[in-house]
Amino acid sequence: GEANAAMSLGLMEIEAGLLRTGFGRLAKVLVEVPGDADIVANIGTTLWTHGAKGLALEYLDRAVGLDPKCDLALHNRGSVRMELGDLDGALSDLDQAIGISENPSGPRCARAELLWRKGDIERAIEEIERAVRTDPQAEYPRVVRVLLLAAGGKLDRAAQEAEELVKKEEADARLLLVRAEWRLSRGEHERAIEDLFGVIGATRNDGQVILVGTIDLPPQDWERIDAALATIRDHEEYGGVARSTMAALLLARGRPGEAR
User: Fold this and answer.
1) pLDDT digits (tens, 9 = 90+) for 135-188
2) Burial class of residue 6, CB neighbours in 10 A (0-12, 13-18, 19+)
3) What is the pTM assigned to this prediction?
4) Are 67 and 77 contacting, i.e. CB atoms less than 8 angstroms apart?
5) Calpha distance 171→191 (Å, rounded)
6) Three-state SS for 160?
7) String of DSSP letters for 216-259
8) Which residues contact 179 (CB under 8 A, 6 or more apart)?
């Protein structure tokens, strides 16, 4: 009805960067239909994707209170709880979402990430395989499968699937990181550096490494990039660019003392 149309418009405005207008519209919708769990869940989800995790959790709690079988609310509340460190609460939400969702690929994918965080990589891979089987056309579960396969030491298979996925117009940067690690393991240093530059948004000019992209990576990815570069920092041909890249990244992360 009108409320759903207004909500869709508000979400589009937020996606376009018109945050004040979009959230204002969503607030009006909420006043008109305060008991609609799906609308409340959508607002909570939007807040989460824009970094307001605490407020998002409040809205998702409210949505579950309105409808305990709202799979959107359970799935995303599980994801928010996981990011906030409440792994047991997250697991409970995701298990419920999997049980009631018509397409449980999303919550299965989140559950695989949660198992990964808990250090159970084998069960995480089993779960992501279920997610991919549930919805073979969905791209994100396949991206997560690449990451989990790489984390589980299955680098050849991970790189093979990453190769397929990076052909997309806007490939996930983490795929390039997996492929870079694989290429380094095969001695393909130049191509590995190209992939690493794709991850961090960098280019070379007269031997200098210049960062041209927006660097926004989680700590575990920084560690993997540092480790990859460290493997070739003393290489006769590529050590210079590796060391220059490491210095540029340390500067970008506010660690000039180490960059020197």
Assistant:
1) 998 999 999 999 999 999 999 999 999 998 988 756 788 899 999 999 999 999
2) middle
3) 0.79
4) no
5) 17
6) helix
7) ---HHHHHHHHHHHHTTTT-TTTHHHHHHHHHHHHHHTT-HHHH
8) 159, 162, 163, 166, 195
